[in-house]
């Protein structure tokens, strides 16, 4: 069963230093009842024209639940309210103060002297082969049992499969990282999944896509990565990543995705209150996940 949707309540003044990376309003907070790790409080953005709240909160929470179903390690996420304003809190992937986070752009720059880590959009150096090489001496995430011989890139390929499944378009080179602990280097769990599941669409358009399969297919086909070289489609990026991963990893991730049932998806989405995720949005998310799952499984030709 997925974690219940139970928002944590905050008041202003409970937060610490601003998180410098990204554009959202966010702060680090302490939640002693859940242990010593800090949590990042992120407000769902408001539309400047009509004040509508975006769906980043429910998107990030549900993607974390889907990551667990798929077997992708990810930052724990809880819904939250800051003086009534919708938000989420995401637990730090660092286990204690002995660990440090080295984001992907820094990891790639350390491996390739000419890698431009300042690029915000499409980066010609940001390729699957480059990431595989940069992760060559990095171990897979800790606290998870992986099949024998699993590499960090084998796990990272699963991150891209998840992105394609949930229509997540934000896997830029600062949206993954390596955890440093002394001489040990391990891939960090996946984090920051708010840009997914068509969170920004309005229900009027969702209704049109639900009523017209071709309209929905055109929408999902436009799902590309704006960050990787060549701006590939999310499904093609996932297939290519699995193609570069080990045969064990290909079988592992494809079998995990194949095993996820519609009932399991419904059990997650149904936890979100209809005041936050409308019935139309609920139906759209379930249809979107079924569509992308079918596209990934039918289109993958790896052995």
Automatic annotation (TrEMBL):
It comes from the Bacteria. This is HipA-like C-terminal domain-containing protein. It comes from Microbacterium flavum.
